[in-house]
Amino acid sequence: MQIVPVPERVPAFELDPAMPSGALPIFGEYLDRIGRSAGDRRLLTWLFLAFGVAQFVTGAGVALPLGTLALAGSIEVWWFCHAYARVPETRLKREAFRQVDIAADGLVAAGRTVGVRLPDGRWLRVRLDEAYRLLVAGHRRVWLLGRGPKVFVGFSGVVRVRRARIHDTPPAGAVAIAAPPWSGSPRLDPVLSAHRRQIARELRATAAFLLVLAGFALWVRLDFPAVGWAAWPFAAGALLSAVAAVARSFAHGRPLPAEHWTELRAVLDGPVRMSRRGGAARLSGLTMLADGTVVGFRLPKADPSMAANIAATGRLWIAGVPKPGAAKTGVPGYPVLGTVWLG
Questions:
Q1: Which helix (H) or strand (E) holds 248?
Q2: Angle between helices 228-252 and 190-223 (to 10 degrees)
Q3: Which residues cross the membrane (predicted)?
Q4: CB-based contact 112:128 (threshold 8 Å)
Q5: Contact call for residues 334 and 191 (beta carbons, < 8 A)
Q6: For the whole model, what pTM was predicted?
Q7: How far is it, in rounded angstroms, from Cα 36 to Cα 122?
């Protein structure tokens, strides 16, 4: 991993163009995990499909089986689109990233579609949320993986990639993107604030889906009493999870309250471990507080981008004053957030 300070005082993880993408520490393993997770979660579709067939066979009518199949189809389409946009094909793991520096007039946007002018004069088009648009505008470079009109795009400080296409012209109606103002305050950081708003939107979408599942379970309870014993607990669990997701979305919808970052040195006590499901990372180690006290830290379920930044830079950024217990951590100017336990 390379350590490139952008801005000058904040080192961050960077994709290394000198080695195949699948061999990059943390990044390669992360791709394997999310690919496997996407495949495993599609099993839910087959469970719903089998349940719908069972309803037909046992005479549960027509409406409920059709509703079950529609729900299964919706889940399958969502997972397919998610995997298509974010999981590179296996063959690309043998290729290396190519760094592309963006010229002063080479970055435009039309809504969520961002256009990047490539060195050969063509234009890369990729759909990005606000945080990633600000990230690209501030750091003025991306990494490309793949050849031909369809490629994947990597970014500074994060391990996630996005599928993109190369065109001869920029997006229609695109305008130039201005670099965001730099702020050393977690509360005023434009990239982190946009990232938190995106997390809040995703949590609300998750809550809506859970409410649909709860309603579906109640429908099953009424029209298919044979499985009523399982429908009530399922509906209750989905409803409680939806309430929790909404509560978390309100918390993420607000900026971090801290006014400054505290930079700590971090020494890992072992390799970063990726969970078998979901692509989360686990890491732990030692750090030193301002008074010279050496304490342990652990991130049991970290964003892989957070793990990559800590491993690459040896730094742990705490929002506010670090104290024993849970603390908010991130990387200033990057869409990377998490919770670390100190002590």
A1: helix 228-252
A2: 160
A3: 43-63, 69-87, 203-220, 226-247
A4: yes
A5: yes
A6: 0.86
A7: 34
Tokens of 125: 């088009």
Instruction: Tell me the C-alpha distance between 315 and 311, whole Å.
Output: 8
What is the DSSP annotation of 86-155?
H---GGGGGSPPEEEEPPTT-EEEETTEEEEE-TTS-EEEEE--HHHHHHHHHH-EEEEESSSSEEEEE-
- CB 252, CB 261: distance < 8 Å: no
Q: Quote the tokens at residue 141.
A: 């470079």
The helix, strand and coil proportions of the chain, stated in percent and rounded to the nearest 5, come to 40, 25, 30
- Residue 174 neighbours by CB distance under 10 Å: 18
Query: Which of 114, 104, 116, 128 has the alpha carbon at shortest distance from 179?
Result: 104
> Residue 156 and residue 191: Cα distance in Å, rounded?
12
Q: Would you give per-residue pLDDT tens digits along the chain (343 residues)?
A: 344 444 446 789 999 999 999 888 888 888 777 766 666 666 666 776 776 677 666 666 667 677 777 777 777 777 777 777 777 887 888 999 999 999 989 999 999 999 999 999 999 999 999 999 999 999 999 999 998 899 999 999 999 999 999 999 999 999 999 888 888 889 999 999 999 999 999 999 999 999 998 888 888 777 777 666 777 888 899 999 999 999 999 999 888 888 889 999 999 998 998 887 667 889 999 998 878 889 999 999 999 999 999 999 999 999 998 988 999 999 999 999 999 999 8
**What's the distance, CA 232 to chain centroid?**
32
Q: Sign of the CA dihedral 301, 303, 305, 310?
A: negative
